[in-house]
Amino acid sequence: MIDYEAEGQTFFVGAQKNNIVWLFSTNGFRVVSFNLDTLQCEKYEVDVELKELMDCYIEEDKVYLSMRNGCVYVWDLNTFKLSLIRKSKEDEQVGTIVVTEKNIILFPAMGKDIILIDRNNHQRTTYSDYPKGFRYQINERKYRGYCENMNYIFLAMRSANHILQIDKKTGKLTWKKPVIPDDYELKKETLKMWKRQLTETQLSGKDFIQLIYEKEKEEMSLEEIRIGEKIWNAVN
């Protein structure tokens, strides 16, 4: 907790670069930097109200900001300047933003389309190469949160039945359909959670007994194998 007068402004979009956390107002004209080492804040005023700011993505010395209507701004970490790099012609109701070497990708919140923006010419393309059987489960903020490694960005399967993998260099989108464990496997994994109390809504008494039985059969089988090994070693 720090003392900071926000003057009625709300900050829930932010990004970290080294020891500095950058916070962007969703209903005002202010950007704030917070130093994790000194616990000090710096305030920066901008000319545009960041109204309905949805998400941000940091890349080297720039932070890309997505607005709900589809506009994209860039905050320069060296000059502390805000620039509009994409003005939407209509309300596209976007949410999450991801940036690759090839393109800027806007994902729908209440909208329906994934929008690809070429970083060289800013040409807009509506993505259409969805996998067979793809569908959303809910109609709002369809993508939220991601993780990454050296080569790919993975978007959380918040409301779709596929996981999205994005190539950081090419910007190519690839869909991965997860292998869903069957009911027995789910119960088996639940049984491993001995460190906390389980309720019958998670694992019924009948299922518990069945899993104990299966576990004992497995251990007995392994013990029989070990006995066989001992006999074989004794003979040889």
How are the SSEs ordered, and which strands pair?
Elements: E1 11-17, E2 20-25, E3 30-35, E4 41-45, E5 53-59, E6 62-67, E7 72-76, E8 82-86, E9 94-99, E10 103-108, E11 115-118, E12 124-126, E13 146-148, E14 152-155, E15 163-167, E16 173-176, H1 183-191, H2 205-235
Antiparallel strand pairs: 1-2, 2-3, 3-4, 5-6, 6-7, 7-8, 9-10, 10-11, 11-12, 13-14, 14-15, 15-16
Keywords:
35% strand, single chain, 4-stranded antiparallel β-sheet, 236 residues, 17% helix, alpha+beta, 2 helices
Task: Give an overview in words.
With 236 residues, the chain is an alpha+beta fold. The chain contains two helices and 16 strands. Strands 1-2-3-4 form a four-stranded antiparallel β-sheet, with no helix packed on it. Strands 5-6-7-8 form a four-stranded antiparallel β-sheet, with no helix packed on it. The chain has a four-stranded antiparallel β-sheet with strand order 9-10-11-12, with no helix packed on it. A hairpin with a 5-residue loop joins strand 7 and strand 8 (82-86). The N and C termini lie far apart (71 Å). The mean pLDDT is 82.
